[in-house]
Amino acid sequence: MDTTMDENELTLVIDDHGVAASERAAALVERGRLRWKRGDMRGALGDYNAAAELDPEGPGAELAAHTVEILNFYNHDLYNP
Q1: Is 31 exposed, middle or buried (0-12, 13-18, 19+ CB in 10 A)?
Q2: Long-range contacts of 34-39, Cβ-Cβ distance < 8 Å, separation of 24 or more
Q3: pLDDT value of position 55
Q4: CA pseudo-torsion sign 74, 77, 79, 80
C-alpha cells in the first residue's frame, strides 16, 4: 500500500470492491493511522475494526485492541473534575 496517499485517495481504494480485500484492509489501516494523527480516535478505531473484518491476519485487529486500551486508559474526569 502506498503510504503517501491522502485520506480521499485511500477512501477510493476502500470503496472499490474490485480491489482485493487485503489491499482494502491495508488502505483502511492507513486511513485509520491518518485519522489517529488528526485526533479522530473514533474514526481510527472504526477503520481498524473494518480492516480486521476484511483481513483477520492483518494488523487491523491488533491496532483496534491497542486503540481500545488507550481509550480505556484516557480518563477525562481525572483532568476535568
Answers
A1: buried
A2: 34/6, 34/7, 34/10, 35/7, 36/67
A3: 95
A4: positive
**φ/ψ (deg, to 5) at 11:** -65, -40
46 burial type by CB count under 10 A (0-12 exposed, 13-18 middle, 19+ buried): middle
- Quick count: other Cβ atoms within 10 Å of Cβ 50? 19
Closest among 58, 7, 56 to 30, alpha carbons compared? 7
Contact 35, 67 (CB under 8 A): no
CA 55 to the chain's CA centroid: 13
**pTM more than 0.90:** no
pLDDT tens digits, one per residue of 18-46 = 999 999 999 999 999 999 999 999 999 99
